[in-house]
Amino acid sequence: MNTYARFPVEFERGEGVTLWDAEGNAYLDFLAGISVCNAGHCHPQVVAAIEAQARTLMHVSNLYFTRPMVELAERLSASSLGGRVYFANSGAEANEAALKLVRKARPRGDVVVLHGGFHGRTYGALSATFQESKQAPFAPLVPGFVPVARDPEALDAAVGETTAAVLLEPIQGETGVTVLSGELLAAARAACDRTGAALVFDEVQTGMGRTGTLWAYEGVGVVPDAITVAKALGGGLPVGALITGERLADVLAPGDHGSTFGGGPVIAAAAHAALDVLDDPALLARVRELGARLRESLRELPGVLDVRGRGLMVAADVDRSAPDVVRRALLEQRLVINATGPQTLRFLPPLVVEQSHVDDALARLAPLLS
Ligand code: PLP
Residue 241 is part of which domain span? Predict the structure, then answer.
């Protein structure tokens, strides 16, 4: 269906930070399939893991255990909040699981969400996404969501005894890489502690090393009660997961929720390989270093009004139409980026990017902004 205004480019092949179109032209990819290909396109370890698992066992349903799934759950829990893991197939589905869990933990409770947040397109996730243009055509939405401004006092006032959860992205991705302040995140934690509500971080876009730590919450000094992850977790294949801490680990019981494909062996094998690549202190240090370098250099370009971000999750506001710059970058400079607003460019390169790629991207962008 006509749900995307696609560009007139057909990609055929990818390797690392490079994509090739059907005519053999090479492109520098600074979008990574919207923060999915964090390990780079067709990373050899991810490809090998998928090939090997596809030859061994592809699917048995969630009525049974498989080793790749069990070990992936253990690994995700150990790398983060220490509780249990539910596997889904996308970010929106991971958020649906989180919403069901927090409602079951506090029956009929409200979910407080932030202005500027984005949590997905399914009905629960869409209802948590307080954006008129996305919600209005699909009303009525799921009740029980309370949108508040990105302000510590407003957030504190909105959370009470009937609040089931506060759901937020530590860095809001789709609305322009807005880094939430430490003060706001601390207020969310304090309000949840005061009332017994659950603090859930949507790490669908910020997770898997994107911000220079494996999970973004590690870099902000606030530990949530649960995180949702997806995008880069599957190394390029579709997967989502809800990871809880101890407190919420046993809320969902058999029959409460489920998915035919969630956590299947091929996806789980791909995720192990993606984690092998991305959960690496040297790689994460480079993400922080190159991200700082990218932001600094963007600030020096003409036409750039503001630069935001953490690690390699970066946005730049420009003095002209961002969609035009994105289109010209793709078609004239063969640089893949996207726009998250009328004047906002977003950069989400694969995390295996090197300094020379960052310099190359800036050199391709500069003529479009001068
Ligand atoms: N949450 C966040 C923060 C996202 O950025 C996205 C997608 O961009 C989603 C949820 C939805 O993920 P999916 O498209 O896999 O359903």
Answer: 46-278
Residue 38: inside a domain, yes or no? no
Q: Please provide residue 298's backbone torsions phi and psi, each rounded to the nearest 5 degrees.
A: -60, -40
* 7-33 residue pLDDT tens: 999 999 999 999 999 999 999 999 999
Candidate from 205, 237, 261, 338 with most ligand 1 atoms within 8 A of CB, to mutate: 205
Q: Is 81 in the pocket of ligand 1 (CB under 6 A)?
A: no
CATH number at residue 192: 3.40.640.10
Compute, in degrees rounded to 10, the torsion defined by CA atoms 15, 16, 21, 23.
Answer: -60
Q: How big is the CA angle at 340 (ends 339 and 342), to the nearest 5 degrees? A: 75
CB proximity list for 151: less than 8 A, separation 6 or greater:
184
Q: How many independent structural domains does the chain possess?
A: 1
Mean pLDDT value of segment 221-249: 98
Distance, CA of 329 to chain centre: 24
Residue with tokens 């995700």: 76
Q: Give the integer Cα–Cα distance in Å for 146 and 115.
A: 10
| 212 inside domain | yes
Q: Which 3 state secondary structure label does DSSP give 76?
A: helix
Provide, rounded to the nearest whole percent, the portion of the chain with pLDDT above 90.
100
125 CB-near residues (< 8 Å, 6+ apart) = 91, 92, 95, 96, 99, 119
Indicate the residue type of 181. Answer: S
